[in-house]
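Two quick folds needed for the group meeting slides. Do the first one here.
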Amino acid sequence: MLKVIAFLKRKPGMTMEEFIDHYETKHVPLGMKYATKIKHYSRRYLYPAAYPFGVKHELDCDVLTELWLDDLKALEENWAALRQPEAFAALSGDEMKVFDTSKNRLAIVDERISDPKLLIANRK
């Protein structure tokens, strides 16, 4: 399973509530219409929190969007589908309404999972 994470920032002046509403009710349905190779599509909205004894700082992104696909070939096929004129016009047009695209970043994930039982055993 190939996992991709998008670090996305809302447009300046848009509240988090407006951002979430637009993303969930408009952008997600568009993505699901055109990105047919995706097996999992989740969004994790981020709210700044202060470090102990510190202040809250604006975050570089407002949502972590996670996409799972079968493999790199499926990712490439997905990108090709999104570059088709109808999909590109719909998605890029909507992105301009909701995202500060200059701050958006994308990463392919190399995931490593630890067994919690081993972590507990190592503490003894």
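Then this one, please, same format:
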Amino acid sequence: MLARRLILRHSMAFRIDVARDIAARAAPNPSESTPVMLAWALVETGKFDEAEKYLRYNPVPTAPAADPFESLVYPRIFRLREMVAAKKK
């Protein structure tokens, strides 16, 4: 939750550290959106190569109790992939 709040507040440096820590400690979970949030922060700070590895997979939507941040993840993941691909050209 902290990393997500920081992303919404645009606290760049701190949110990258917090999101990296969360992603490193989290058990594998197909519905986890933290990698996308981390990639978002990395793209916004110009770290496109590192962001690419967090954008490899789409998180699986949860049901019936969806994560309130899922609405940010699904449109954003495709935009982030587009931005990373454009930098690779």
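Slide caption for protein two: The CA atoms of residues 38 and 80 lie 11 Å apart.
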